[in-house]
Design brief:
Blueprint: E1 9-17, E2 30-35, H1 44-55, E3 60-65, H2 70-78, H3 82-105, E4 112-117, H4 118-121, H5 125-140, H6 142-159, H7 165-191, E5 196-199, H8 204-210, H9 219-222, E6 225-233
Parallel strand pairs: 2-3, 2-5, 3-4, 5-6
Antiparallel strand pairs: 1-6
């Protein structure tokens, strides 16, 4: 199907965190763009809207494909064992990369997109340090733990309202694992010069960190500017 025949979307900012960066973040030369697999905000027409928005503001962008961390979602929602979930998550990441290459290349003149997979970043030497630090913060800081768990609880209640308390608790813990891994990956990218994250959706805990509501969080996350986009039909 040709792009012209698809429903068209337009991206606009929902909010920028911290708020003081709203009129400054476009001064950076690059950003990173998080891709969540099997997420409706990344169907092709919506992806195009996000890429149009990014390419109008940044000369370069690192596309972060959430392959390895998606295994946690698959374990939780599809009841796959860890090995099956990992294999499927990595495959879905590769499929997205090859399927959407031509779409990214349409914006080459305005913005140079490069790609990195979460599975790659989780091999970086500093990833394990960041992840361990976040796990400790989750154990010791009740405000941080409550924020992370609240985000996961809202996600699962929206997905399926009729869950037993035991199953809901299991899924919330899985989501917490997901967020801690994801945040450690974001810290790795921030350390490597990517100061702005763009995502079509919201990260409540990450937003709170950027707004200095979790003073014991990683400095790399506190220094990150988070731009949340909304995708609306034209």
């Amino acid at each position: 199907m040709q792009n012209s025949l698809l429903t068209r979307y337009r991206a606009k900012i929902i909010f920028v965190s911290p708020e003081c960066q709203r009129n400054k973040f476009e001064g950076y030369n690059s950003c990173f763009f998080g891709v969540s697999l099997e997420n409706s905000n990344f169907i092709r027409p919506k992806l195009i809207a996000s890429l149009e928005w990014i390419s109008n503001r940044f000369p370069s962008c690192c596309v972060l494909i959430g392959d390895s961390i998606h295994r946690i979602t698959l374990e939780s929602l599809q009841d796959l064992n860890p090995e099956e979930a990992k294999d499927k998550a990595l495959l879905l990441g590769q499929e997205f990369f090859y399927r959407e290459q031509s779409i990214f290349s349409q914006f080459d003149r305005a913005c140079k997109f490069k790609f990195v997979f979460c599975s790659e970043i989780q091999q970086y030497h500093d990833y394990a340090q960041y992840h361990e630090s976040l796990k400790n913060l989750y154990k010791e800081d009740i405000l941080f733990r409550t924020s992370v768990r609240s985000f996961g609880e809202k996600f699962h209640k929206k997905k399926q309202s009729q869950l037993s308390l035991e199953e809901l608790e299991r899924r919330i813990e899985k989501s917490s694992d997901y967020f801690l891994e994801e945040f450690a990956i974001f810290a790795c990218l921030q350390r490597r010069g990517y100061q702005v994250m763009v995502y079509p959706g919201s990260f409540s805990t990450l937003t709170e960190i950027a707004e200095a509501k979790h003073p014991n969080a990683l400095q790399e996350l506190k220094d990150l500017t988070v731009v949340s986009l909304q995708l609306k039909k034209r």
